[in-house]
Amino acid sequence: MAYQITNRCVGCGVCVRICPVAAISGRRRKRHRIDENICIDCGACGRICPHASVKDPEGHVCDRIRIRSKWPKPAFDPDLCMACTICVESCPTGCIDLKPDRGSLKTLRRPFLKNGRDCIACTFCAAECPVDAIVMSEVKK
């Protein structure tokens, strides 16, 4: 079951703009809809909705994290990472890349957060990492 938009939706369109797979549609000022055949269950729509009108697949209203820069971001442990690229492939927004540096074994082709602004805190990278080298953490400023 995919995320769902409830009748609290006012049609502001914020969720449409953040959805990485264009699974949300609707007219301005009208209740929007999530196509469950397209939705990848990333949860970005629920984290950004200012009206608490998105329910997760378990039926709970999603908590909004008001300031997007406070959304968790992936942190990579170079001692555990084996540079398999699964995190890069699992990222729906393409914000993770491999370092082009061909320096030491510690830095050779390791993943990094190329564009933190594009990260939607979906946790797919951490969930798919076969060696648990990725943890989602709040960005320290």
Automatic annotation (TrEMBL):
PROSITE patterns documented for this protein: 4FE4S_FER_1 (PS00198), 4FE4S_FER_2 (PS51379)
Pfam families assigned to the protein according to its UniProt record, in alphabetical order: Fer4_7, Fer4_9
Matching Gene3D superfamilies: 3.30.70.20
4Fe-4S ferredoxin-type domain boundaries: 1-29, 30-59, 72-101, 109-139
Keyword line: 4Fe-4S, Electron transport, Iron, Iron-sulfur, Metal-binding, Repeat, Transport
Highest taxon of the lineage: Bacteria
Gene Ontology terms, MF aspect: 4 iron, 4 sulfur cluster binding; metal ion binding
PANTHER family linked to this entry: ADENYLYLSULFATE REDUCTASE, BETA SUBUNIT, L-ASPARTATE SEMIALDEHYDE SULFURTRANSFERASE IRON-SULFUR SUBUNIT
Designated name of the protein: 4Fe-4S ferredoxin-type domain-containing protein
Protein source organism: Desulfosarcina alkanivorans
